[in-house]
Amino acid sequence: MAASAARATSTVHARSPHHPSSTVLAGARVVLPTGTVEGGRLVVEGTKIVKDAPADAAVHDLSGHWVVPGFVDIHNHGGGGASFTSGTAEDVLRGVMTHRRHGTTTLVASTVTGDMDFLAHRAGFLSELVEQGDLAGIHFEGPFISPCRKGAHSEELLRDPDPAEVRKLIDAARGTARMVTLATELPGGIDSVRMLAEHGVIAAVGHTDATYEQTREAIDAGATVATHLFNAMPALGHRAPGPIAALLEDERVTVELINDGTHLHPAALELAFRSAGAGRVAFITDAMDAAGFGDGRYQLGPLEVEVKDGVARLVEGDSIAGSTLTLDTAFKRAVTVDRIPVEEVVAAISANPAKLLGVHDKVGSLEAGKDADLVVLDADFTLRGVMRHGEWVVRPRTG
């Protein structure tokens, strides 16, 4: 854990949006970009974090708790029984609120493989929710992926990443497309990466059967993210290192990790952190409808999924079909099971994905002038409170 910053310089103030006075959150361990501050202070004024609190500011005692930035999820297919690929606006918002109650204050909606016309129509639909501020963007996972590593995607709907077709989807998103996952070794893959980079859209290598050399070529062309590293790609080999080695070694790449205890062995998680460094890791959920909802049968695009004991698998084929993870669970597991320092977990779950999305000037860290998005955790790292834009989504009960 990083050394605590001097208390005299650690106060970050914020105020609640619909109240005349500022609200000071006092007494907690506050994780700032400069380190963890014991007995720190945060003041919420309106929707923002500010530097100074007036004398009449209300004080909320959070002694014995942690205050960390709101979580940022760049890869999420749904939750609360709702799918971002097929649900109504009400369904999508229910999924967003499910994850928001678990600390995710900034969320990118991910789609799954489908018919191109349907996906283009869906992009236009989701873009309206981005424009309203409910979503932070759209991520297309499929259909431009390898049939050899399709995971929970419908093989008959897969296609090569022709740049014109990839462009069709990002145009349909009306400026809200944030990321496209590609098997860059397929015909058109490298040209699509270049096109995405030119348009300011993240090209992510994933669901790929690429070699080490092919992955290096994709990175040089502009790919900057590894979609759920280790999953849906060739294993690391000593003679054929494949995409994993190329993605881990390159400073230009951020690697997504699903820390649910199912997708990754703890040793694989540690390998990623040690190889890439905490500044190049982004925790994601890859959540599907069942997140925050429960076991049962669900649809993931055209495929049927059964969730049992919190693990989602295809009914036909038994492949893992996304996760039921929420980021508060990923945070707690990272600290208590994987023994990753809190500051590194905060980077992976907030700051790094915010930087990837280009919204680090607004979210991802607790600093004056940024949105008052934060999560309150107890001493055992269980979520106790969530604030978004200065309003409590989950109000902490501290006695």
TrEMBL record:
Molecular function per GO: N-acetylglucosamine-6-phosphate deacetylase activity
Enzyme Commission number(s) of this protein: 3.5.1.25
Metal-binding found in the keyword field: yes
Amidohydrolase-related domain: residues covered: 66-393
Keyword Cell cycle: no
Keywords: Carbohydrate metabolism, Hydrolase, Metal-binding
InterPro entries recorded: Amidohydro-rel, GlcNAc_6-P_deAcase, Metal-dep_hydrolase_composite, Metal_Hydrolase
Gene3D superfamilies in the record: Metal-dependent hydrolases, Urease, subunit C, domain 1
Biased composition (Polar residues): 7-21
Renumbered residue ranges of the record's region Disordered: 1-21
UniProt feature coiled coil, ranges: none
Tree of life domain: Bacteria
Annotated NCBIfam families: nagA
Family, as annotated: Belongs to the metallo-dependent hydrolases superfamily. NagA family.
Protein name: N-acetylglucosamine-6-phosphate deacetylase
Phylogenetic placement of the source organism: Bacteria, Bacillati, Actinomycetota, Actinomycetes, Kitasatosporales
Gene it is expressed from: nagA
